[in-house]
Write a structure and sequence with these properties.
Structural class: alpha/beta
Helix content: 40-55%
Strand content: 15-25%
Strand order of the largest sheet: 1-2-3
Shape: globular
Number of helices: 4
Number of strands: 3
Radius of gyration: 14 Å
Length: 107
């Protein structure tokens, strides 16, 4: 954040460790600098997912959306809707997900 004081950040991680908590703290410590937090829900633990959804509410209240998604394609779609990646990049993510056997969420 100090190295790039004029750039916003999109923080991307997963639900298995402390990414949501760390990223939420960064968003609180640097108001207006975190454009969004993208978390892939990979653990399959309902309690963990519920805890992250609670963190998402806190982040949203602080002005930072936290998107918890079951797959990378959902996160790519969100990024495209917000104008952070090109629409054709979503197609590339869909192809890569299909190639590696990931099951994307339906449109």
């Amino acid at each position: 954040f100090a190295t790039y004081p004029d750039l916003p950040f999109l923080l991307v991680g997963d639900s298995t460790q402390e990414d949501p908590e760390i990223y939420g703290a960064l968003a609180r410590e640097h108001p207006g600098r975190v454009a969004a937090i993208h978390i892939r829900d990979v653990g399959g633990d309902a309690r963990r997912s519920a805890a992250i959804r609670a963190l998402a509410e806190d982040a949203r209240a602080a002005g930072t959306p936290l998107v918890l998604a079951p797959d990378t394609l959902t996160l790519a779609r969100d990024a495209a809707e917000r104008g952070w990646i090109a629409r054709d990049a979503v197609d590339a993510v869909a192809r890569a997900s299909a190639a590696d056997g990931s099951r994307p969420a339906p449109d």
